[in-house]
Amino acid sequence: xxxxxxxxxxxxxxxxxxxxxxxxxxxxxxxxxxxxxxxxxxxxxxxxxxxxxxxxxxxxxxxxxxxxxxxxxxxxxxxxxxxxxxxxxxxxxxxxxxxxxxxxxxxxxxxxxxxxxxxxxxxxxxxxxxxxxxxxxxxxxxxxxxxxxxxxxxxxxxxxxxxxxxxxxxxxxxxxxxxxxxxxxxxxxxxxxxxxxxxxxxxxxxxxxxxxxxxxxxxxxxxxxxxxxxxxxxxxxxxxxxxxxxxxxxxxxxxxxxxxxxx
Amino acid sequence: xxxxxxxxxxxxxxxxxxxxxxxxxxxxxxxxxxxxxxxxxxxxxxxxxxxxxxxxxxxxxxxxxxxxxxxxxxxxxxxxxxxxxxxxxxxxxxxxxxxxxxxxxxxxxxxxxxxxxxxxxxxxxxxxxxxxxxxxxxxxxxxxxxxxxxxxxxxxxxxxxxxxxxxxxxxxxxxxxxxxxxxxxxxxxxxxxxxxxxxxxxxxxxxxxxxxxxxxxxxxxxxxxxxxxxxxxxxxxxxxxxxxxxxxxxxxxxxxxxxxxxxxxxxxxxxxxxxxxxxxxxxxxxxxxxxxxx
Lengths: 263, 294
Prior knowledge:
The complex is a heterodimer.
Chain A: E1 5-16, E2 19-31, E3 36-40, H1 47-55, E4 62-67, E5 70-71, E6 79-82, H2 94-106, H3 112-125, H4 141-154, E7 159-163, H5 171-188, E8 191-196, H6 199-205, E9 208-212, E10 220-225, H7 234-237, H8 241-257
Parallel strand pairs in A: 3-8, 3-9, 6-7, 7-8
Antiparallel strand pairs in A: 1-2, 1-4, 4-5, 9-10
Chain B: H1 8-13, H2 32-69, H3 75-87, H4 100-131, H5 133-146, H6 154-162, H7 165-190, H8 194-202, H9 207-245, H10 250-259, H11 263-290
Helix pairs in contact in B: 3-11, 4-5, 4-7, 4-9, 4-10, 6-7, 7-9, 9-10, 9-11, 10-11
């Protein structure tokens, strides 16, 4: 049975002024539909590069990436990307930002009224209906990121790709958004690939944690199965010994096994 | 009857309930609204204080210089002359003797046309130069070469090619004021944050959508700066060009009055050129504010 997202022998080499830089090599990963995968590793381990390959923002130097049995060639709305920098267009309202994506995907099939309804539903999903007519300059960082998530999900992508989406936010906002993300992912059953370097976030949110080795020529080091039952409550997990054991395993990989390679 | 019952008798008999005489209305400037008005008036006059003082100082200096030189007209004299001049701004005594109103309008018309052409050509060109590196490479040496050329050096070529003064003047305005528009627009395109272009990529937007929804709004502030600079150059140039080409217009009028040795009128012309230039600039500033989304 073919997996939903298949990455086979992916390799990524960049041409730089100093010669060729091998960012990734021999990356093999199979993701099932509805799975939540966390990509974790030290800085420079190629996790964002891998995400960009799945997003189609770069073509692999070798190997192939398949989504639903079709090769990934170039970016497209079937992969919804949430950037670390929210990347909302400041001259459009929150509604306008989401509508831009919705129109792109469904514009040629649906009426204006239906597009409007889709946009409003996406805002409702992230609990931001009241901010529909506000501009990004008028809302907080956490709200901006929620709009970014709403924009990605409004396209009903096959895969949700998130590149350290909560990295720029304070701890409390981050916690709130992590809970919201869990709720949204459960509701929409979105297949998600999230880059993070927060160990707690990885264990809390994901079904599997893909731990990358250090770059250059980074590859997948270990994959950890997170078999904690859902829905997950962070307060209860704090007293769950299995949660701490999993956390410990990730930390051990990051800080002991990779320590000697750290630049 | 219990003591707590309230009825007509108890109400009527209680001395505190007798209706008092109607109170005098509070004076307006003691009410909240009145206070607010006083505050804003006060702030307004405070902000005027510095410029008014500066202007008064300038007039004083002018008076001193004119008294020292003996021949330069002073502020009072110039003012009287200006009043007489603007009393009949739209007279028409033939092709070279028209009212000041006509001259101002003629200059504005030429600037409008020349600058309009510069914007029409410069804005799309700026966009393309900003978007396509190869085109930027091609045009860069030409722009660098032609930009420093003095506006008036373009006039002979214009006269030679077009053979008439009117198109030649327009040509001079066009070629002088187009550079800020091109360069600022191109720089604006180059400065569009990569974030927005990433959005365009992941949404796979068409080239037209990228232009209308992302490029154009992002570049607009830079474009407005270019337009403001251009307008300044155009207004500067037209007065100089008109001095050489004659006919109507502020520049021609200045030169004419010099030939008549009417120094007061020359001084007035300086003020008019400055004031009109200021008004044009402020109009564009207001327009730019409208498009600012920050």
